[in-house]
Design the sequence.
């Protein structure tokens, strides 16, 4: 509000001046003429105060946006011609921003430069949000998309000054993209996904040295440069949270289908190039992905460290118990224990795990997991449920090891931890049990201590189930993860193979295996492909 | 039953990283060499 | 209970906005530098035409199999790209050298008649990008300060 009189005209004049300068020698050395331009900005009073600078950027950004809205509907020229002209102007504006950031303060003034960048990004976000609100379905992503991507690419070009502030640059953009997440700005969703999956963005945030990769695979000395991974994980969670309500309704409308397919492509890139990232952050992702998104979840759970050789799950007589990797705990971020709330419940849980008392606590777990909301699919606090399962399991592993033993069918039984798991499998209703079994199955991943423990646990629950309904549900949870198209997590495969191969489980004697000809054929087909 | 993820236009068998030629979430094929920006010698920027 | 549920009002709004965004999706060129030549202009072709890049077409070995004129075309019309870089590398493998003043590629037609620390002199073939063709130049002095 209340821009000083004449500021709009000055801004327009200065932008036109810059465009003339930029067009005269766009690829030579804009820095040479930059000093003269700064003098002009000074003369016009733009650099007089923080308030004026802010207004200058706001007005400039709005001019870029208005230009796009005016030009885009032009049917007299081809879309590529229209875009080329728009980009010429926008790219020039972005180049101005980059130079201002780069030359703000002296060469070592990291804070000054970062503050200016954050200011500009904040202004772009503000203009975008307002535009999105006002224009609604007429909102167009183009000017913002172009400004943000060109700004990012230019700020990541090889330059010693920009290299010295690269981390703050990445942090600023990640924060900006989080503010523009699809749930907040759905009209920007496609551009947003394109921004966060740009090859340069991915490379800058996730790229690690080979040594860092090896260190991160297991719970060893933490690697210092982890913030990029945390940032990217948050952005993916933003994406999954947006998609979740639409993906639950398995019939996807075309717009959602496109976004979903794009998401799968991004996940495939991550699985191929940065599997360690998916390994570490799988927990938070599975927390927000709907239970019916089986293939997408499998994609994440199939990740394994690149320096690991997975034993062929179809090897006859594969002795999982003797694999070296099952003694190693995988690194998991974020700390899932913080989801066990309230703190009084966590205290009670720890007390039960320690003393196996009071017995009444077991029903308290169930009621704590249940939410007051009665809407279908919303009756359980999924974050809490997942956290309890993983926490109890990891505590069980520690407990067994502290006795000098290794987890197996015998050592996991008759413990406070198994009390909880068995009680939940019996006490929960179908919906709750399904979510509970899914939480266990989400830990069936690459060879590690969690995969091994939870594989044993699932098989133990099957063997000790007091009703065929529980065995059927365990089978269903495994089967639905197996019948979708690849990939399939290693832990899932070895668990199912053990279930159908080991006569102790009497799998083929169960009625549900033969309940219908199609089901019988399905099991036989899956068993054949597993054997 | 999900999709055939090998048919999304990504070279999943590549021994090298594939993100440097990732053409975006809507692309059916990787970037061509002319689509990948390269910071070469400044003398090459003739136009 | 974990099956499909009707969208809430909030989610319905989000879908409506996504639907309208679907009508003007980002274009591949939106995330790329401006291409002075050969801008992206999607053109439907018969399905039996090659729809994607040839395998290994981003390798130096592939570029070395291209004709010299193709390499020059890539160099001048795809500047700032990996393709330009690979074309330059391939040209150098064929003993072409870039003159940074004339911005042209030169190749010795014969052993230079004179070589010293600062320049060599002799007969060269060069590619004139303005006339688009190879030319021969006798008695040309190639100063090393202009050698890329």
Sequence:
């Amino acid at each position: 509000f209340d821009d000083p009189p004449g500021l709009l005209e000055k801004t327009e004049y200065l932008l036109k001046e810059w465009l003339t300068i930029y067009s005269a020698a766009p690829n030579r050395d804009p820095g040479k003429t930059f000093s003269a331009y700064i003098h002009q900005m000074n003369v016009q009073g733009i650099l007089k105060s923080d308030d004026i600078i802010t207004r200058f950027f706001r007005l400039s950004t709005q001019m870029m946006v208005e230009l796009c809205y005016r030009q885009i509907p032009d049917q007299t020229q081809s879309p590529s011609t229209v875009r080329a002209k728009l980009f010429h102007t926008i790219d020039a504006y972005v180049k101005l921003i980059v130079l201002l950031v780069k030359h703000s303060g002296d060469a070592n003034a990291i804070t000054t430069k970062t503050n200016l960048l954050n200011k500009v990004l904040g202004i772009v976000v503000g203009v975008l949000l307002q535009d999105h609100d006002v224009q609604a379905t007429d909102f167009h992503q183009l000017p913002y998309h172009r400004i943000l991507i060109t700004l990012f690419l230019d700020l990541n070009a090889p330059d010693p000054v920009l290299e010295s502030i690269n981390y703050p640059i990445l942090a600023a953009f990640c924060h900006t993209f989080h503010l523009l997440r699809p749930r907040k700005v759905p009209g920007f969703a496609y551009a947003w996904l394109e921004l966060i999956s740009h090859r340069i963005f991915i490379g800058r945030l996730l790229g690690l040295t080979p040594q860092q990769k090896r260190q991160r695979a297991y719970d060893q000395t933490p690697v210092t440069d982890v913030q990029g991974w945390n940032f990217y994980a948050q952005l993916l969670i933003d994406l999954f949270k947006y998609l979740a309500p639409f993906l639950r309704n398995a019939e996807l409308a075309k717009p959602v289908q496109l976004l979903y397919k794009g998401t799968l492509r991004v996940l495939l890139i991550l699985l191929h190039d940065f599997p360690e990232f998916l390994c570490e952050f799988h927990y938070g992702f599975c927390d927000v992905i709907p239970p019916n998104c089986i293939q997408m979840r499998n994609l994440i759970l199939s990740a394994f460290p690149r320096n690991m050789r997975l034993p062929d799950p179809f090897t006859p007589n594969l002795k999982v118990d003797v694999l070296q990797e099952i003694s190693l705990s995988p690194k998991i971020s974020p700390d899932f224990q913080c989801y066990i709330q309230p703190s009084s419940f966590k205290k009670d849980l720890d007390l039960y795990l320690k003393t196996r008392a009071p017995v009444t606590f077991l029903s308290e777990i169930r009621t704590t997991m249940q939410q007051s909301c009665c809407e279908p699919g919303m009756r359980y606090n999924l974050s809490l449920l997942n956290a309890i399962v993983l926490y109890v399991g990891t505590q069980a592993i520690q407990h067994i090891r502290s006795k000098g033993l290794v987890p197996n069918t015998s050592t996991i039984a008759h413990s406070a931890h198994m009390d909880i798991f068995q009680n939940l499998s019996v006490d929960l209703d179908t919906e709750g049990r399904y979510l509970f079994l899914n939480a266990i199955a989400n830990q069936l991943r690459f060879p590690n201590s969690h995969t091994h423990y939870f594989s044993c646990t699932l098989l133990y629950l099957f063997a000790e189930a007091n009703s065929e309904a529980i065995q059927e549900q365990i089978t269903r949870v495994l089967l639905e993860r197996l019948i979708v198209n690849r990939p399939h997590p290693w832990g899932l495969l070895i668990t199912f193979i053990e279930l159908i191969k080991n006569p102790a489980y009497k799998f083929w004697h169960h009625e549900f295996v033969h309940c219908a000809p199609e089901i019988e054929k399905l099991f036989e087909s899956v068993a054949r492909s597993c054997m | 039953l999900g999709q055939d993820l090998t048919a999304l236009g990504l070279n999943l068998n590549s021994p090298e990283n594939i993100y440097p030629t990732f053409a975006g979430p809507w692309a059916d094929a990787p970037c061509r060499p002319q689509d990948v920006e390269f910071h070469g010698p400044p003398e090459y920027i003739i136009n | 209970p974990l099956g499909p549920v009707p969208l809430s009002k909030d989610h319905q709004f989000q879908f409506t906005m996504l639907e309208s965004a679907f009508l003007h999706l980002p274009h591949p060129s939106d995330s790329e530098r401006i291409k002075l030549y050969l801008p992206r202009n999607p053109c439907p072709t018969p399905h039996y035409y090659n729809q994607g890049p040839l395998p290994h077409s981003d390798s130096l070995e592939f570029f070395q199999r291209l004709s010299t004129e193709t390499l020059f075309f890539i160099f001048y019309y795809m500047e700032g790209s990996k393709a330009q870089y690979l074309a330059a590398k391939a040209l150098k493998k064929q003993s072409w050298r870039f003159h940074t003043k004339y911005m042209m590629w030169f190749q010795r037609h014969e052993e230079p008649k004179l070589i010293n620390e600062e320049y060599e002199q002799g007969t060269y073939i060069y590619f004139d990008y303005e006339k688009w063709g190879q030319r021969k130049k006798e008695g040309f002095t190639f100063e090393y300060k202009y050698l890329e």
The two ends of chain C are 69 Å apart (CA to CA). The mean pLDDT of chain C is 93.
